[in-house]
Each structure stands twice: as structure tokens, then as C-alpha cells.
Specification:
The protein contains seven helices and no strands. It is mainly α. The protein is rod-shaped, with a radius of gyration of 38 Å. The two termini are 73 Å apart.
Length: 227
């Protein structure tokens, strides 16, 4: 019979039962007495020695510790109540182990997906910021300018395009009929192949709208390609 040292990381659980250990375990009688005491405890507690409870036995009342202890007890109860806990079927155990590994892989992939989506959002945010700077809605420091504040007040149609038309003077020389006609271009409708011959007083504002739309599209394209 020998006394074997055990490293602390190998200890998984502490019991609330304490044995009085002789200061010197080298004599055979001392080791024999400890062996008998351990055997006695095993016979008295066939289901295992009672564990040391930090809350009940050590009187630790820290709310965080109490909550952790309750969580551990709940998880242990679920673990011991699981049918697999007493199963001797190695194939079944391997299947559950593989299931746990697959679930872990799924969580890792979901985490990568979230990171990828966040990165895409950041890239999109940078691109939109470049567009707003190029169009004069914000300055180099990201501060909203007059043009940007005007765009914020537009809640129908394409805010950037409408603001561009406002600030380039497209609406200045139009009467209320022309304004209504031009504003109708911002109402979403089904695409039609019907050819419409516009009068000169409507063709020019439409041309200005198309030029402004192309300008904004070009800015979008440049910002998306700029790394």
C-alpha cells in the first residue's frame, strides 16, 4: 500500500466529509488506518460521497456564486436523468458524441456567418458614406450638411435623386403642372413598353432627372469599386 501524490488539476470534486489524516503517512499503521476509514465511508455512502456545497456548507452568500451553484445543480440533474447516463451501448454513445460534435460545428459555422454578415454591413456602410460625401450630403468628418438634412425630410421616392433635383435647380423654372408631371416619375408603377411623345416643356425636366439619376448611379458604382 502506497501513498500516491495527485496533481490539483486532476481533482474534479470536493466532498464535505473530511478525514483526519496523520501528519506522517510513512508508517504502515497510519496508512492502514486511513484505508479503513476510506473503506468505511464507501460502505456508508454507496452512491458516492456527498459533495461540498459552497452555499450550504461554506456559507457563501454571493449572489453570483449562488446562481452558478444552482445552474450546476440543474445541469447535473439533467445529466444524471438522461437515459444515456446509464447506457452501456457504445454505438449509442458514439452517435450522441458525434451529434454533439456536429452541433458544435454548426455553432461555429453560424458564428462565421454572423461575422460575415457584420463585415458585409460594414462594407455597405462605408460605401454609402462615400456616396453621401461625394454628393455633398455629409462632409469629410461625417457631419450632415444642408443637402443631407433636406434629404432626411423626404420620405417618398428616391431621396437622393429628389434632393439632387432640388439643389441643381431643376424645379426652379417649372410651373405646378410640370412639377406634378416630374414628381409622378417617382411613383413606382409596372414597366410599360408604350412609347410616349413628350412635349418640350416636359422633355427637358425629364432629361435633367435622367442625368441626375445617371450621376448618382455612377457615384454608387465608383464607391462600390473603391477599396
Amino acid at each position: 500500500m502506497h501513498v500516491v501524490p495527485v496533481q490539483l488539476p486532476l481533482i474534479s470534486t470536493l466532498s464535505k466529509i473530511r478525514l483526519s489524516v496523520p501528519p506522517d503517512l510513512r508508517p504502515l499503521d497510519a496508512r492502514q488506518s486511513i484505508l479503513l476509514a476510506v473503506q468505511e465511508l464507501e460502505s456508508r455512502f454507496p452512491q458516492g460521497l456527498p459533495k461540498l456545497n459552497p452555499v450550504k456548507d461554506m456559507k457563501i452568500e454571493d449572489p453570483e456564486v449562488v446562481d452558478l451553484v444552482n445552474q450546476i445543480e440543474e445541469l447535473e440533474h439533467k445529466l444524471f436523468a438522461h437515459p444515456l447516463n446509464k447506457s452501456q451501448d457504445e454505438n449509442q454513445i458514439r452517435c450522441f458524441q458525434r451529434k454533439a460534435e456536429v452541433n458544435h460545428e454548426i455553432q461555429q459555422l453560424k458564428s462565421k456567418m454572423r461575422d460575415s454578415q457584420i463585415q458585409k454591413f460594414r462594407d455597405e456602410l462605408k460605401n454609402r458614406s462615400r456616396v453621401l460625401k461625394k454628393l455633398g450630403h455629409i462632409n469629410a468628418d461625417g457631419v450632415v450638411q444642408l443637402k443631407g438634412r433636406a434629404a432626411c425630410l423626404i420620405d417618398t421616392g428616391d431621396e437622393l435623386l429628389v434632393t439632387e433635383l432640388m439643389f441643381n435647380g431643376t424645379f426652379n423654372d417649372l410651373d405646378h403642372h410640370q412639377v406634378a408631371a416630374l414628381a409622378s416619375c417617382f411613383i413606382p408603377v409596372d414597366k410599360s413598353s408604350e412609347q410616349i411623345n413628350l412635349r418640350m416643356e416636359l422633355a427637358k425636366p425629364l432629361q435633367q432627372l435622367q442625368e441626375s439619376a445617371r450621376k448618382i448611379a455612377e457615384v454608387y458604382k465608383m464607391s462600390a469599386n473603391w477599396k
